[in-house]
Each structure stands twice: as C-alpha cells, then as structure tokens.
Amino acid sequence: RSSWLLLAPLLTPPVPVITAPPCSLCPEGAHRFQWIRNLVPEFGISSSHVKVLSSPAEFYELLKVQIKTAKQRVVMASLYLGTGLLEQELVDCLEETLEKSLQATGSSDLRVSILLDYTRGSRGRKNSRTMLLPLLQRFPEQVRVSLFHTPNLRGLLRLLIPERFNETIGLQHIKVYLFDDNVILSGANLSDLYFTNRQDRYVLLQDSPEIADFFTELVGAIGDVSLQLQRDDTVQMMEGMVHPYQGDKTAYCEIANRRVMEVINSARTRQELLHAKTFHSSQEGSSLLSQQDSQASGGLRPEPDTWIYPLIQMKPFGIQIDEMVTETLLTEAERDARIYLTTGYFNLTQAYMDLILGTRAEYHILLASPEVNGFFGAKGVAGAIPSAYVYIEHQFYSEVCCLHQQERVQLQEYSRAGWTFHAKGLWLYLAGSDLPCLTLIGSPNFGYRSVHRDLEAQVAIVTENKALQQQLHREQEQLYLCSGVVSSSTFEQPNRYVKLWVKLVTPLIKNFF
C-alpha cells in the first residue's frame, strides 16, 4: 500500500512541494527539506550559532547566566515552575536582573513574560503562581505571567474532576526559554528534577534575532488568550478577550487560531522576503548592498548553512503543522535511511505507528524503562502508569514481531540508576550517511496527548555543516549508550508484570497520558 494515499486527506491543503526554482546557493542535501517552508517560516542561520547541551546541570547554569545578562527581554514558556530552592534561585536571578535594569536607566527597558499552564501551575497551596507573585508585585509594569487554560476543561467536567486529574484534559506544554536574541529549545520544565537528574534534550540558538522574535510573538499570542495572573493571586482575561472556559468555546478557539496563525504567517512572509532579497535578487550590486546593511547592523553575518523550522501543534485550535511535518518525514524516509526516535512516554499515535511499521527506513526507538519513567513510584493510580506504558510497549513489540520487522524496527530502553528519562525528538540519517542532517527537538512526545490535547512546539533543525552534524550525532549516541535492546525476554522479567486491571483500563485511558 502507498503511505502517501493514507496521508492524502491530511496533506491535501498545504501540499509539501517546492514551487520555487532550486536556489544555486542552497546545498542540495538541505534542499530536500525546504518543502517545510511552505507551511512555516524558514530561518537560515550559521551553524556556529547552534550549541547542543547534554546535561540538566548545564541547562540550569545556562538559564541563570542568560537571565543575569538579559537587557531587553526574558520570555519563558513551560508547563510549570517548581517550588524548590533551585527554582527560587531562578526567580531571585530574575528579580536581581530587573532591579539592576531599573537602577541603570531609571525606567527599565527589560520585559519579562512567563507562560505556564493554569491547572499545573495552580496545583497545591505553594505553586508556580505563589513563586512568581513577588516579581509581579514588585515589577508590575515589566512582568507578565500568563496561565493558559484549555477550552476543553469547562462546565460540569471542570467542577467534577479533581486537582491533578484535571491536567489530563489538556495543557500548555511548550518549553521555550529566550533571553534577548538567544533561544533555548527543550523538552525540560522549570523544575529541580530537570536541573539535576532528569535527562532531557536542550539546544541553544545564539544571536538569532528573527527566531527570538518569532517565539516572543508566539508566546505573546498564547499569552493573549490566557488568564493573566494579578498581584493578589487572582486571574482575569485581557479586556475584550473571550474566556477559555466561561465563554463560547468555538469563538475562543477561532480567536486563538487566528492569533497564532497570524504569528506563523507574518513570520513566514518576512522570511520569504528576506530569502528573496538575499538569494534571488538579480539586481546588480545587491550583494554589496546587503553587505553594507549587515555592516551597519553590527557586522557581516556568516552565510547560512543551517535552517530552523518552528513546528506548532495546537489541535484544540485546529493547528496541526507539527503532525503534518512529522508524518511526512516518516513517510518520505527512504530505504536505508535511519531514524532515531526518542520519547519519555511511549504512546505513539496510530498514524505514527502505521508509518513506522509500513515504511522502509530503519528505526531505533528509545523509550523509558519502568524505573526511569517519571511516574515510577508515584502514589495512587498514577503509580500504575509505568505498567501501562510497559503494556503499550509490549503490544507494539508484538506487532513488530508479527510483521517480521525486528531487524528494521528496534526498541531500546533507557536505564540509568538514580535518574528519570524525559528526552524526546528524532534524528534523521540519510541513506549512506554516518551523521544526521535533521533533528526535531522540543516539547512533543509523539503521543495522542501531544497531537490532540496539548499546545506543543518544536523545531526542525536541518544542517549541512559537519561539525553541527557531529554535535547532534554525539547527543544521540550519548542518550542511546544508556540503553538496552528490547527482546521477547524483556517482558518476561518480574518488573514487567502488568496486572489484569491495568491491561483492561489502558485502552480506555491511553489517550489521556
């Protein structure tokens, strides 16, 4: 069967074909992915501006340094902010930077915008909101805290579902941390575990004003349709904005769709004009003119050899860009290409599973062993979630075996004493290549929640630069080194025993975690 036929209904509106003539200055290997710019803005940067981080401690130290040196803007989007000492130190860094900014100029140019999820950020008496209130009270003109509330949690459902369980309906799951023109993309939240012993992925895009502007606008757009935290710990919507759970759901979602798509489309138009000016202008002397423009704005920029594509998924608002691009990448992966795909929560959508099992590329899928699952040892019903993931994994492995695909599709489990596993994304190695030319990094887990319930964002990084490809390859190798290959005997181990009630309940609730 043809996978393209299966995808046709989904991909019909924005057909991923290159309509522009091939650019002689664009490397051929990178050019094969430039169909993505038909859907989202394409940002060309130098690979020297990209740094791949490897550890939680490195991520935490970078956050603090970036906060302390920020002059114009700090924009942070996360699921939540934790309440421990390490998180308090981050808040103290923000306070110190805001204070210095005020003292230096009398009226600070620095603006801080924080976007979190309402339900997760409000959990417990001491929570993300109470952590941020002192900042809001002391710097009301400079600090904005937005709390996204899913429009799907409303009415009787909102009244009946208790705390923690209400987070299963839908969340703000985007993780972006930007400071002036430096952007960190990650799957990590702002919590002590993610700063110490919870393995994730992190990439720093340095001196990238266009990308920083895009994510500032994106976080601002979601912030505009979110509840605004007030100095007395109450929340209210911006004037004239439809309420997410008290107002009309359709009207709210239409407004949110329009705001987010305006950000995507306006950035796409800007980047297309920039691309046309840079690469396709046939006017004599245009190269000299662009050099003079670059010199006037602070020096010549290196020739782009790396392209960044932001992929947004917000199904509640009818935005499915990340899903379309991911499905197309999986569909188009050629024979002998290798895809390394990792997720902390192995619960692939049926579409992703069908593509992995029905296409030609070689797959190495890294997932969490039960002991490094974030829910391992949790109290109550949540404590059974690792067993549910084992059951889902076993079902998928059985299907791989039934189709005699064990050589082509390999499962590997991350295991590391004293650590948990939260890394997500993929690396694509073209046929015959020992290095990846594309990676996806950000918040999505490739599961039902990521595709259908939550607000997600990641970037596709495409590069022709060997040094950056080697950075990405080392990142992949480092993660997979801590893993063992899954076989039939894996599920015979005592810690893989799944109780009957978990097997019965998992199909009913797998779309919620």
Automatic annotation (TrEMBL):
GO terms for biological process: cardiolipin biosynthetic process. It comes from the Eukaryota. PROSITE patterns: PLD (PS50035). GO terms for molecular function: ATP binding; CDP-diacylglycerol-glycerol-3-phosphate 3-phosphatidyltransferase activity. It is found in: Mitochondrion. Keywords: ATP-binding, Lipid biosynthesis, Lipid metabolism, Mitochondrion, Nucleotide-binding, Phospholipid biosynthesis, Phospholipid metabolism, Repeat, Signal, Transferase. Residues 168-194 form the PLD phosphodiesterase domain. GO terms for cellular component: mitochondrion. It catalyses: a CDP-1,2-diacyl-sn-glycerol + sn-glycerol 3-phosphate = a 1,2-diacyl-sn-glycero-3-phospho-(1'-sn-glycero-3'-phosphate) + CMP + H(+). Its main location: mitochondrion. Functions in the biosynthesis of the anionic phospholipids phosphatidylglycerol and cardiolipin. Belongs to the CDP-alcohol phosphatidyltransferase class-II family. This is CDP-diacylglycerol--glycerol-3-phosphate 3-phosphatidyltransferase. The gene is Pgs1.
